[in-house]
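Standup notes
- HV: blocked on the assembly model, inputs below
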Amino acid sequence: MTTNVPVIDSHAAAPQAGRKNFLNCSQGFWSWAGTLDHKRIGIMYLVGVSIALLAGGLFALLVRLHLWKPEGVLFGNVEYNQIFTLHGAFMVFLFVIPAIPGSLGNIVLPLMLGAKDVALPRLNLLSFYLWVTGAVLATLAIVLGGFDTGWTFYAPYSLYTDQAVVTIGLAVFVLGFSSIFTGLNFIVTTHKLRAPGMTWFRMPLFVWAIYATSILQVLATPVLGITVLLVAFERLYHIGIFDPRLGGDPVLFEHFFWFYSHPAVYIMVLPAFGIISELVSVHSRKPLFGYKLIAFSSLAIAIISFLVWGHHMFTSGQSTYAMFAFSFLTFFVAIPTAIKEFSWVATVWKGSIALNSPMLYTLAFLVIFAIGGLTGVILGALNVDIHLHDTYFVVAHFHYVMMGSIALAFFAGLHHWWPKIFGVIYDETLAKIACGIIFVGFNATFIPQFIMGSRGMPRRYATYVPEYEPFHQASTVGAMVLGGGVALMVFYLVASLFQRKTAMQNQWGGVTLDWLSPTPPPLENFDEPPTVTTEVYDYSTLDYKTMQTPVA
Amino acid sequence: MSHDGHHSVVIPAPGPEFVPHTVAHHFDTPVQEFQAAKLGFWLFLATEILLFGGLFAAYFYFHEAYPETFRVGGHQLDWRLGALNTSVLLLSSWTMAMGVRSAQTSQKQKTLLFCGLTVLGAVIFMVIKFFEYQAKNEHGLVVFSELFAPYDAATGSIPWFKDYHGVMAGLPHGHLFFAIYLTMTAIHGLHVVIGAGLILWIMKGAAKGRFHAGYFLPVDLVGLYWHLVDLIWIFLFPLLYLVP
Amino acid sequence: MSAHDHHAPGDLQMGHHHVSSAKLFFNVLMALLVLTVVTVAASRVDFGAANMLIAMGIASVKAALVIAYFMHVKWDTAINKIVFLSSFLFLSLLFIFTLADHATRRWDNDLHTMRTPVDKQWVYRQHEHAGDH
């Protein structure tokens, strides 16, 4: 594979040996920084969100270390508040929301549709730079004194604290538009750039999931944008709408915030569902059970997610009648979600299961998500939530979804498409070991949090009463194991880029269009514009030779 | 009509005063390019609706909480200026629609004329808005020089809300109406300025002959943006100047 | 809706676009200006709580005219119609739930001003007091 080819001519007939792909077709800083190619933008996103993940993870470990002793080990109260806020804000806004759509979505979605690129490539690059701008502003906010409001910026505290709330608010606003433009781009791409023959019900379920996510990104994120702007305005010129001293209502802030941030939970988790849908099918070599049900359940989740935000506000002073409605509606989310979980398990059942590392991450997801989802149903019950609200039970619940499910699905997808993107394969043994460590470490971290939460340990406190010490210490040990597992994963993935152990053209035997393009894909994805003639996940069309042909 | 990707599709110019348009490489046809961009822009407009929607929700929330404050507050605004500005924006929306139509029918001079008139409408709107703000400033309802001064929790008075004539005296949280008025009209005004800038950019392209019956996409999109600005004002006018 | 919607081979224009007549645009403008006058006139009459509904009703008619004709939505594709109109649908969810919470809080407290959690103590005290009898 020659890499020093100076001439950029993607249209030239590619020779079979040392063929040009999107990675080696051009070189230099600006060939990446100014690229309009969706795959390169996806890789830049991948690097960015990975840095955010490691930073957010580091903050998490600091939080856990601090909580080793009841009186706290590392920080004063203000610093502790800043560190857990940084953990939350970095993880939510810089990692979980953009991670899967920005990186894997960007790379895989046009491939799956048989398109040359996303519909609006310049907007795609703009999305990435907005993400970078948001990341810079968030970092700047740390330099300017930090912020201690929690990632939720609840009024009135966010209006009174003397920290850099305006700066981080601006960061969130910019990141919001990055997310909006990504979603907008994917909707247009899905509508307008499908290959001939690619009907809606021949689209892979990853595309369906990203499509549903995009609807949420476009329709919910603007409300977050105006909310953080209003918080900034409150601080700058005291509008008064969120400030109870001035006749405002902090509960209105919570309405606005959760109108976005509840759908945002599905902005985060739907892409993860999409990855899992792909992976259970490919690695079980079996068409998905209930394809249409999974597709429609993504849309159903997207719609229902707009009707339930008040379940984050059961102790806020919201009207009891509104709480009845929100609690009742919350249970409906469980239906499409359970349909998915059931369909995945039914897909694996009697499949030709390949227990390779992407599949192991997928199976870990299935277990963890079942726990994360079901504890959500518990919290959706109004009376139970009054007891559990703002305890570690809630913390454990959403980490089972956001970290255990979404991050594991992201890792699963990363392992799955890694050979596709880079043409190299990582050390499979290390991958399996890392997956096991992450699974054990994760559960060790958060099962104690369920227990102490149900016993009343409140979240976000820098100190605690001594009776919770064993749970906190178990959780801290678990977090260290989890951190070690992630570090191992990063190590062997990065190492694989240098070892250059060649992957196969179709490493896992996928039959969606992403696996039918050359590996790694050329600049415009396909040598010939593809035409789709078969149904999706039809493994009878699998060409086994591509599974044994190394990348050229 | 898939082609091999080696050659880009070119839309010919309808006359010597126009230039052809080259379709972006990743689209197969001009129709695909047009529809993709237009769908994208409609999605963007949907986000604008929801962004302003948050402000409208806040308005209704506090209108319900403090109806008297809003009623009296609304009387402090000059409805004649509001109605005049409404008419200016409606007229400019019409000139913009005519501008798009002129581009669709390859009438270069008329495109420039109507776009120019639209920008003029934007300028008149902002000038009237300036005088309105100035009046609020004089009455101490929004003292701009004190806008960002720190809030004194001890006295509980808002630095930019002086109410020299005591028109809001005795009403709960009199500043709230003016804060919402200022926030909504300022964000709307920002959109007016951005819209005017975009129309100027369109005029630059139109002068070069880029827009004609074969390719008028940017004119169409900027037109949609301008109509959205009008659309929001249609709701702002009765809510702020004629508080129901 | 396939990826390559209806277009004749060799059609190098941007597709078939409806070009509205100048007369139609002028009529719409006139209707909008007349409705502006109606808005002002209606606000002069006290209809009680209905004033808000009337004002918003007229504004919605004006908005519909702008959307349908000036923004060409009447002749636009189905998906573009759905996208734009759905923004109003989802916005209405924000309005309905937020305002419904606000409106029903007074039922909680039997008071006509804005309530905060602190005020709920008042209800609880009343309750205890009633129990004493």
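- HV (later): unblocked. Helices of chain C lie at 22-44, 50-70, 78-109, 117-132. Residues 1-13, 122-133 of chain C have pLDDT under 50 and may be disordered.
- Next: hand off to the docking folks.
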